[in-house]
């Protein structure tokens, strides 16, 4: 993938403007360290910073149709590009690049082609024949994208906020699953899957269908001409991704070029739970495993750079992004250009601890829908920008369009957490990969509960951040918080500390508005906070706050929800539950 | 190698200062994309951005002695580190990094160990026991280094100017071959080779000794734990480096890890002379050869970024840096972390065309000495910063300390260019590698004259730059040049154009003063301009201006040197000349 920047219809075709666009495009250089390109057509500029993953030799951008009348700058991976090429038999392609199909599909189908793309993408397409343009972002928002408007009437598009915030009068997040056409001058949603209405599905749970859909999602993401690896925290999601990748690697083109040994990566403070858990999985799968240790001070020193890169002041996202940001630099330094990762599973299957409190299957399902729709502001943003800060790409098979359709069509009754029946979080996923004959993972890993991400890297990470913020944000500063930051007022010192840094890099009001806010407990949406009255009193946005819920709900060790703030560590308490007959594939 | 930044004794140990140092250190991130470190001791800060080449797994910096009382941040490669380790048997090393010896040598020898280091380096060593520090830069200035002083009494050290220019009241180039000690508060030259006095040496030319010295210089530079390649323009210097590297690669540790196939790289406009010449050499040596084509527009679009990175407004350096800068990005994108390159040969052997006009061997020799001493402001600066802009390291065997001693000890009578005796430029080097039995290069390549670097990438490159500048710098602007830029006043529109960009990035007067100026013809020093009265009238600083000299001196085709210089737009390589008996190895 890459970094894109487009300035459309700015009524200025001077050298000074060209230099300015080049300068702004360089702010996205980390996303595409390998090469850059700029196509200028009158007062339209399409810039590109390339990370070369497919066809490194000839796939430089912008891309064109045959007669160069259509220009495309794109950040993306189109997994079905070979099939699409076959459907365009009368077209001549200039490169082997997977994104080369876009201009040709547009020629063939006009604006209606976007849903034909299976993959992740953000692109700007300029049709020089009538000076119109089209912008689109992938279904869930795996790739990041912003849109802005200049006083000169120009429309700006950038992969990251920093590409346009200084030059636009107003800007905002480009909504995922949408396209913007210069003809309509407005957004239109092209992504219309059945689950989007939030109606409650009724299909029975078919473990093998779910398994096959996910395997397909992983395998199609192994398309590569360069070395890659897997992010492995040792939890269920990343372990499944690693197990499937390891199993199917041998048959891919990637293995022929880079060997059939899978490289896995884990980050943590020394002695962190994730490091231990990941090592166990890596040993089982036989991956070449790399551990990266960081100190709390390393993390604190990186915070400014993290916020500059990920462009949010959301506390949970910053906490979780920092270790990922540090690890990405190390991974990239080993020559690895992309990794496959487990984001999205917790949203699709209701894996967060607060889902234990879902009052019924309807609420449960609707919350998963809301979570998926918000992913682009949270985990997609984190996974995309923490890795791209170092020119590393993250691929997320759980957010495969087809897989989401399968997983979101299951009657949510099956997803409900029922410990008394042996159903812990994400049980439908665990059971789908419970294969007695050819086990993907040992049972105790397949059914293990794990720390929420920021605790997994080491319990002292969040404590260290809070202590650091408490040293540098005074009580007096907090008194004025609401006056200084009327929107999304920080209500902890940690939040205030991050917000100060964010405002220094992105002082515009538009920037503040791109970041989500509102009440939340343990990553819940504001709506789900209503599930438990006690939650609204707790300000800690991490997974720990839900622990009280977890323990008290099933083990009766804690009587009052007040205790939720008490325990400082999540200790996986549940035993591996025997689940009856495993699936025979 | 890496990027270093140190702030020493700034009387401020606040979090704000730490954040500022981290922020400034990030301006050097391109030099060390792999990891970063900051060591703070009271009000002294040692920051580091690492490009991991030896011991990637554990060599993160700063480096320390056993009890951590001595901290070192270093940008360098110490080729004799294994021998030095053996001389320190009672010391325990924390890492396998080649630079780990520095702290221990200091413990053993105090400030006087610098000349024991065989390699290239810039380092800051902080002795926390008495809060003293020393700073040193390698003999010739292969690594870049700047020093600055703050109003608070602090001393600042940075690999690039951009690390300190905004925070220092005054700053300058750190002189190569010198060290700065906090005890003396003054520079002291540690590099004292025989040639430095510019006395005329009298040793007879021994071709085999010269050959062996250079082979040794190349081989010791093959120390690596990561993939590498060779920059091959097809000229004598880079072709010799490539030939020696491919000959000895099989015997190195590098070959075991990365294969014994050498990768070679060449850049040019499509159809350029270098591309053709390099291909011929690559075919002969059997390297895996990579060609990168750029357009004049690509180059012009990069100029701002080039000037930001290389930190000069010197016209020749910018012309030559741009293709190297573009190529470095492509090389890095292939996973290659360092390249070996041919810089320095023209200075040591008087390879520039203007040396044809040297009036006698004394003048010839002294000019080579002056050229070597100035290398850090020209070709070293270019080679170091154009590559490091993309985290690629350039190694330059011609600037090996021992090799320079051998080459500069030869009676300069042998280096004089004497067409009538078949001695073209750099004849002593060519003859040293003229081996009939096991030829390093085919004779016609070994004795071929080649384009000066900026013409080699394509004749339209310099013309394109001049045209572009002429479009954007008006005659009126030139009228005020002397008032706006009283120091090193630009005398051409091209120079004015570069200067405008430079001043935008580096507005301080100190910054302007770091760049050399003065009269020059075809890369000569100001002193050598006196060799020909007509030269002072020609403002074009490229190699072409000397061509007239060249042709007129031996071919009698042109009557007036200055007139011919303006007429000939292309350098046409001369026929290979017969050189008599070749050396038997």
TrEMBL record, chain A:
Reaction(s) catalysed (UniProt annotation): L-aspartate + L-glutamine + ATP + H2O = L-asparagine + L-glutamate + AMP + diphosphate + H(+)
Keyword Signal attributed: no
Pathway this chain belongs to: Amino-acid biosynthesis; L-asparagine biosynthesis; L-asparagine from L-aspartate (L-Gln route): step 1/1
Highest taxon listed in the record's lineage: Eukaryota
Record's signal peptide: none
Enzyme Commission number(s) from the entry: 6.3.5.4
Keyword line: Amino-acid biosynthesis, Asparagine biosynthesis, ATP-binding, Glutamine amidotransferase, Ligase, Nucleotide-binding
GO molecular function, one term: asparagine synthase (glutamine-hydrolyzing) activity
A Pfam family that the UniProt record links to this protein: GATase_7
Residues covered by the Glutamine amidotransferase type-2 domain: 2-185
InterPro entries for this protein: Asn_synth_AEB, Asn_synthase, Asn_Synthetase, AsnB_N, GATase_2_dom, Ntn_hydrolases_N, Rossmann-like_a/b/a_fold
NCBIfam families: asn_synth_AEB, PRK09431.1
PANTHER family per UniProt: ASPARAGINE SYNTHETASE (PTHR11772), ASPARAGINE SYNTHETASE [GLUTAMINE-HYDROLYZING] 1 (PTHR11772:SF48)
Protein name: Asparagine synthetase [glutamine-hydrolyzing]
Source organism of this protein record: Stylosanthes scabra
From TrEMBL, chain B:
Pathway as given in its UniProt record: Amino-acid biosynthesis
Signal peptide boundaries: none
Keyword Thylakoid: no
Coiled-coil segments on the chain, per record: none
Catalysed reactions, semicolon-separated: L-aspartate + L-glutamine + ATP + H2O = L-asparagine + L-glutamate + AMP + diphosphate + H(+)
Keywords assigned: Amino-acid biosynthesis, Asparagine biosynthesis, ATP-binding, Glutamine amidotransferase, Ligase, Nucleotide-binding
Xref: SUPFAM superfamilies: Adenine nucleotide alpha hydrolases-like, N-terminal nucleophile aminohydrolases (Ntn hydrolases)
EC number: 6.3.5.4
NCBIfam families documented for this protein: asn_synth_AEB, PRK09431.1
PANTHER family, sorted: ASPARAGINE SYNTHETASE, ASPARAGINE SYNTHETASE [GLUTAMINE-HYDROLYZING]
Protein name: Asparagine synthetase [glutamine-hydrolyzing]
Name of the coding gene: AS1_1
């Amino acid at each position: 993938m890459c970094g894109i920047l487009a300035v459309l219809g700015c009524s200025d075709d001077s050298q000074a403007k060209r230099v300015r666009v080049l300068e702004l495009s360089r702010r996205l250089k980390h996303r595409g360290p390998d090469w850059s390109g700029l196509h200028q057509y009158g007062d339209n500029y399409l810039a590109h910073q390339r990370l070369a993953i497919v066809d490194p030799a000839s796939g430089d951008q912008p891309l064109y149709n045959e007669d160069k009348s259509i220009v495309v700058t794109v950040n993306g991976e189109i997994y079905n590009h070979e099939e699409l090429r076959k459907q365009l038999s009368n077209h001549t392609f200039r490169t082997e690049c997977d994104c080369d199909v876009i201009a040709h599909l547009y020629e063939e189908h006009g604006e209606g082609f976007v849903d034909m793309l299976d993959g992740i993408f953000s692109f700007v397409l300029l049709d020089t024949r009538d000076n119109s343009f089209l912008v689109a972002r992938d279904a869930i928002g795996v790739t990041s994208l912003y849109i802005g408007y200049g006083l000169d009437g120009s429309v700006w598009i950038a992969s990251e906020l920093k590409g346009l915030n200084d030059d636009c009068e107003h800007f905002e997040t480009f909504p995922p699953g949408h396209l913007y056409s210069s003809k309509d001058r407005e957004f239109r949603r092209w992504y219309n899957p059945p689950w989007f209405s939030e109606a409650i599905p009724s299909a029975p749970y078919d473990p093998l269908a779910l398994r096959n859909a996910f395997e397909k999602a992983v395998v199609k993401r192994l398309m590569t001409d360069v070395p890659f690896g897997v992010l492995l925290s040792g939890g269920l999601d990343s372990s499944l991704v690693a197990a499937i990748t390891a199993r199917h690697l041998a048959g891919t083109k990637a293995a022929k070029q880079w060997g059939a040994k899978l490289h896995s990566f884990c980050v943590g403070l020394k002695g962190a739970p994730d490091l231990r858990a990941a090592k166990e999985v890596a040993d089982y799968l036989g991956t070449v495993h790399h551990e990266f240790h960081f100190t709390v001070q390393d993390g604190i020193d990186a915070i400014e750079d993290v916020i500059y890169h990920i462009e949010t002041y959301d506390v949970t996202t910053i906490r979780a992004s920092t270790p990922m940001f540090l690890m990405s630099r190390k991974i990239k330094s080993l020559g690895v250009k992309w990794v496959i990762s487990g984001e999205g599973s917790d949203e699709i299957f209701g894996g967060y601890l607060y889902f234990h409190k879902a009052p019924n299957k309807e609420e449960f399902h609707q919350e998963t829908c809301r979570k998926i729709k918000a992913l682009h502001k949270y985990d997609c943003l984190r996974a995309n920008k923490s890795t791209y800060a170092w020119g590393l790409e993250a691929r997320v098979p759980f957010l495969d369009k087809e897989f989401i359709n399968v997983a979101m069509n299951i009657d949510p009754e099956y997803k409900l957490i029922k410990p008394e029946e042996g159903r812990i979080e994400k049980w439908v996923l665990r059971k789908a990969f419970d294969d007695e004959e050819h086990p993907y993972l040992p049972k105790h890993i397949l059914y293990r509960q794990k720390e929420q991400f920021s605790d997994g890297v080491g319990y002292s990470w969040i404590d260290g951040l809070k202590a650091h913020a408490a040293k540098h944000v005074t009580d007096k500063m907090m008194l004025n918080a609401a006056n200084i930051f009327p929107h999304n007022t920080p209500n902890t010192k940690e939040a205030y500390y991050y917000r100060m840094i964010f405002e220094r890099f992105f002082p515009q009001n538009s920037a503040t508005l791109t970041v989500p806010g509102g009440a939340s407990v343990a990553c819940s949406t504001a709506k789900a906070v209503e599930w438990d009255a006690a939650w609204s009193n707790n300000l800690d946005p991490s997974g720990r706050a839900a622990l009280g819920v977890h323990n008290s709900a099933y083990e009766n060790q804690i009587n009052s929800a007040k205790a939720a703030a008490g325990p400082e560590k999540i200790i996986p308490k549940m035993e591996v539950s025997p689940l009856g007959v495993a699936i025979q594939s």
